[in-house]
Amino acid sequence: MIIIVKPEAKEERVRDLVQWIEAQGLRTHISKGDYTTVIGVIGDISKLDDELLSGLDIVESVKHVSEPFKNANRKFHPLDSVIKVGKDQIPVGHGNFAIIAGPCSVESEEQIISVAKSVKASGATMLRGGAFKPRTSPYDFQGLKADGINLLLEAKKETGLPIVTEIMNANHLPLFEDVDVIQVGARNMQNFELLKELGKTRKPILIKRGLANTIKELLMSAEYIMSNGNENIILCERGIRTFETATRNTLDLSAVCVLHELSHLPVIVDPSHATGVARYVKSMSMAAAACGADGLIIEVHNDPQHALCDGAQSLRPEQFDDVVKAVRRVRAAALAED
Ligand code: PEP
Ligand code: MN
Predict the structure, then answer these.
(1) What are the chain's domains?
(2) Which ligand approaches the C-alpha of residue 240 most closely?
(3) How far is the CA of 160 from the centre of ligand 2 (A)?
(4) What confidence tens digit (pLDDT) does each residue in 238-256 have?
């Protein structure tokens, strides 16, 4: 349920109302805009009398939220959320565009430092790199694990770029203490126990859409994290599995529009995993920027041919530089249009 409060309502009256609702064993979420305050109510709302609430002089209207996702719902939080990342509090969302770049996996100190420096010079705002890798085959490179995270921290020290890396097991959380954004990969999107643990942290979480998951399921996964207390969520469309085999996955760009409509959370796009082909990454990055995505996560490797993971979809640093320039042109054109 959402309660829209009249603009002239006094703050203490709103506070009293919230306390009264919470005293019935319900949880509330308050979203303050410039003109309206929305009180989201979660729990057994049959305990509340709609007519009584609507009749209060500070209440403008009462609406029921039929969707099962509440915290992630734009009805609960009409304004775009802006997620702040790292010690510099880099904003993501509501026009603040994130460019996350780096190798699929951290392979060596030389590799990660060199990629970090080049992507930073091209305009990346964050560095990505997998330390724990979810590989289809148990015989493939599984990542450098804790050593990989330490190398990412080195790269962060060298460049100042906040780091984004994937978690696969909640028991590894202590290793992620200095990680700026924790990624939940497509394969773990519905690892609900992991999501609940991430909900107890206050770290920004980048959650990727599962290979065969609907947009609503992605929002329900975000809801798992948010309902446990962590509202710092960035959603990521990374392509879904379809009957098409020409690309690794099928990039569902309409998901960006749907997610923006249904939710206030920022939505970024991963054109690398979506296509699996380096030469398609530029066009899909431009398309993502054009349709209003809040950022990109792109795989970049200093030597894609010899990459231990996802070389075929990885850009060389100079190709990434070209993509960033193209994306800037698209964004400038889209803003001019507005
Ligand atoms: C990755 O980012 O390297 C990765 C494994 O992504 P996804 O979970 O989208 O497959
Ligand atoms: Mn990858």
Answers:
(1) 2-63 (3.30.70.1140), 83-337 (3.20.20.70)
(2) 1
(3) 23
(4) 999 999 999 999 999 999 9
Confidence (pLDDT) at 336: 85
Phi–psi pair at 73, nearest 5 degrees = -80, 135
- Residue list, ligand 1 pocket, CB within 6 Å: 104, 130, 134, 185-187, 208, 238, 270, 273
Looking at residue 146, its pLDDT comes to 98
Mean pLDDT, rounded, for 115-142: 97
Q: Whose CA is nearest to atom 10 of ligand 1?
A: 186
- pTM of the model as a whole: 0.96
- Give the pairing of strands 59-63 and 2-5: antiparallel
Burial 186-205 (b: 16+ CB within 10 A, else e): bebbbbeebbebbbebebbb
Ranges of H-type helices in 141-253: 146-159, 192-199, 215-227
* CA–CA separation, 168 and 172 (whole Å): 8
Token reading at 108: 């060596």
Over the chain, what is the mean pLDDT?
96
Q: What is the pLDDT of residue 317?
A: 98
**Distance between CA atoms of 220 and 254, rounded to whole angstroms?**
18
- Say which residue the tokens 């446990």 belong to: 228
**How far apart (Å, rounded) are the C-alpha atoms in residues 149 and 145?**
7
Q: Is residue 114 scored above 80 in pLDDT? A: yes
Q: How many CA atoms lie within 13 A of 110 on its CB side?
A: 2
Q: Which DSSP letter does residue 24 get?
A: T
Q: Which residue spans within 6-112 are E strands per DSSP?
A: 27-32, 37-42, 59-63, 83-85, 90-92, 98-102
